[in-house]
Amino acid sequence: MTEATRTTRATTPPSVQPDQAAGRAEATERGRGLHRVPIGAIARWTLAVLAVLWLSFCTAIGPFYWFGGSIADWTMANTLYFLLALIIYMALLIALVRFGGGRIIIPPSLRSTCRRAAKAIQTFCRTGWPRHILKPLYALARGWRRFATTRFARAMGRCWRAIRSRTPRIIMRCTSSWIGLALIMFIGWLWVPVTLLSAFGADIRSQIREFSWAWNQWTGLQQPYTGFFAFVPMDIYPTAHYLWPQNPTYLTDQHNLVLTVFYGAVAAASRYFTGSNDAGYVVLSSLQFLFAVFCCSATMHRFLNLPWLKKEADHDAGMLPPASEPGTRPEDYPNAITRAGVWQRTIVILFFLLCPIPVFATISLTKSPLFAFAFVWWFGIAYQLHMTRGRHGGKPQRLPARAFAAFIVSACVMLISAKYAWYILLAQTIIMLIADRKRWKTYLAAMLLPAIILHGGLVMLVSSGKVINGDPIESRGIQLQQIARVAQLNPEGIPKDAADKLAPIFNLDQMGESYFQQDADPVKSSGIQSKKVSYRWRSVTKEDMANFNSAWWQIVKANPVIAADAFFAECFGYFDITDLPYVSMDYYVTSDYVNSTAWIKDWQPQWRAQIATFARDWGKIPVLGWVTHGNFYVIMTLLFGAAEVIRRRWRTLAWHMPLLLLMGVMVTSPANNFERHMLPVTFVFCFVVLTYWRESARGSSNRAAAESRAHASGRDRDSASGQD
C-alpha cells in the first residue's frame, strides 16, 4: 500500500458525521479558491444584529424621554450610550452563540490576555505594595493558619463538608416530584396572602361595579342607561354609545366578560354576608395564590424532572444517562437528555420565591397575573410536546390524557383573562401545524377549538345584545398618543382636513392637555366622572371612526419627528434595561384602592408599606436592581431568541414564538414599561435559559461522541494500514 493511499484513507473515514463532512468540503473549497458566500448565515446574523440594534437604540434614547426631550436632540453622549450598549449586547450574543455551539465562551486569545493581566496584577500585589501595607496582611494570614489548626476549626470543616455533601441530595429529593415542588412554593409564598391578604387596582373595582349594575337589572331595579346626565359603568372606561344595544345591558367585555362575572359574583356574596367587598378580595387573591402554586410547580416539574421519560426504556435507548453513575461521559450517551441539576433547580426556585415580580403577582387581582400563570402552565405542556416530537423511531409521542386536558384548560384560562390570547393562540396553532404537523389534531383540539368556542360564544352574546363589546379605541394607543402629542406640541401642524375628520371623535384641545407620554388612558378619557372628555364616546358613530386612520396618517406625515417621539416614548422602556417601570407590581400592594378598603387597610399596614418600599428601593439599585424589573427578562429573552436563530434551532423557536408575540403586545399596549404586561415573559425566562443550556449540552455531547468515534475509526484504520 502506497503512502498516498494510506493518507487518503486516514483522512476520509466512512463514519464521518454530516456536519464534519460539510466542514471538510468547505475547507477543500477554500483551499481551491471556491469558497461560497454563506447566505443563510448572513441572513441569520443580520436578523440577530437587528434585535441587538433595537435594544441599543432604546437604551440610547432613554434619557430623551426621561426628561421630556425629543429624538431630535440626539448628541454625542447618546451616540456613546448606543455604542456602549451595542458592544455589551453583541458580546452577550456572541457568548450565547459560542456556548450554544459547544465552544468556550471566552476565546483562547482573550483568555490568555486575561491570564497575563491577572498575573501582572498578582505580581504587583506581591512586590509593588509598600512594606507597611503588606505587613498587616501577612499577620492576618499567619493568624488564619493558626486558627485552621484548632479543634474548633476542624469541627467546622467537618460540618461544612457534611452540608456540602448532603444538601444536593436533599434538594434533588425534595424537587423530584410535583408534590415536593408544590409544597416548596406553597410554604415559600405563604407569607404573601397571610400578611398582605390582597392587592389590586382600579380594574377590579370597575368589574365589581359592572356586575352590581347588571345584578340590579336582573332583579328588576330600574337604573339610568342613556342620557346626558346618565353615568354608568360603561362610561368609566368609556365604551362608545354606538356599540350599546337598544335594550339596557350593563355587562361589557372591557375587562373580559368571564372574569367580570366571576369577580363580581364573589364580591356580591361578600357584601351579602359581611357587608363589604373585602372578604371577596381575600378569597379571590387566595384562589389566585393556589392557582399560581399549581401552575409554577407543574411547569417546574416538567422542565426540571422531564416526567414523560421512562427510566428503563430511555436508559436502554441511550436517551437518559443514569444519575447514579457519576463517571458517565458525554460520548457514552450521545443523544442524552439530562434532567436539571442542583444549581439549576436552586436558581429557578429562588427566582420565584425571592423576586418581587412573581411574589406580588400571586395575590394581585388584575387580569395580567392570571394570564401569566396560566401561560406558565401552558408553556410547560408545550415544552412536553416539543421534547416528545421525534421519539420512538421518529414517531411523536402521544400527549397523555391528563396533560391534554391541562393543555385545554390552560388555554381556556388564558382566553378568559386576556383578549390578546385569542390572537396568540391562533398564530401559535398555525406555526405548530407547520412545525409539528404529525400531531395536528392535538393542536387543533387543545388550542384552536377553545379559542373558537369562547370567542364565538362572546360574539354571539354581543350580537344578541346581552353584552357590550369592548371599544376598538383600546387597540389604538400608539395612534392616539401620536395625535395627542402633535396636538400638544404643534397644534398648528394638524392639517385642516384631518382636524375636520377627527372633530366628531376627539376634542383636539383636550387631547393636547390630557397627553401623558407614559400612558394613553388619559387621552381615551379613562377614569372617573371628573375626567377631561377628549374622546367623544357619547356621540361618536361607527361612520365617524371610519375616517380615523386617514386623519391619523395625515397628521403623522405632517409631523414625522413628533409622531416618532410619541411612538418611542410609549414603548422604549420595555427594551431599555436602565428604565424604571412606570407601574411596578408593588404598586398594587399599596394602591389607593387597597388603602380605601373597609378592613384590609388595617391588616398590618406598616408591614405592607415596608415590604413595598423594600421592593421599590431594591429596584432602584443600579445593576443589582435590574433583576426586579420585567424589562430585564424581556431583553434577555430577546437575546436568547437571537442566539437560537443563529444556532438554527427552528423547532425551539417555533415553540418560543408566543414570547415574541407578547413583546408585540407590549409595544402596542397603552402604557410604557408597564410591568404587568411583561409577567408572562418574566415567569418563563428561567425555563427558556434551561432549555438553551440543555440543548447546548446535548449538542456538545453529540459532537464529543462524533469526534470520539472519528478518532477511534482513524486509529483502527491506521493500525490496519500498518499491518498491510
TrEMBL record:
Keywords: Membrane, Transmembrane, Transmembrane helix. Residues 706-724 have a biased composition (Basic and acidic residues). Residues 1-29, 700-724 are annotated as: Disordered. The chain crosses the membrane at residues 42-67, 79-101, 170-192, 256-273, 279-300, 347-364, 370-387, 399-422, 442-462, 653-671, 677-693. It comes from the Bacteria. Residues 1-12 have a biased composition (Low complexity). InterPro entries: DUF6020. This is Beta-carotene 15,15'-monooxygenase. It comes from Bifidobacterium apri.
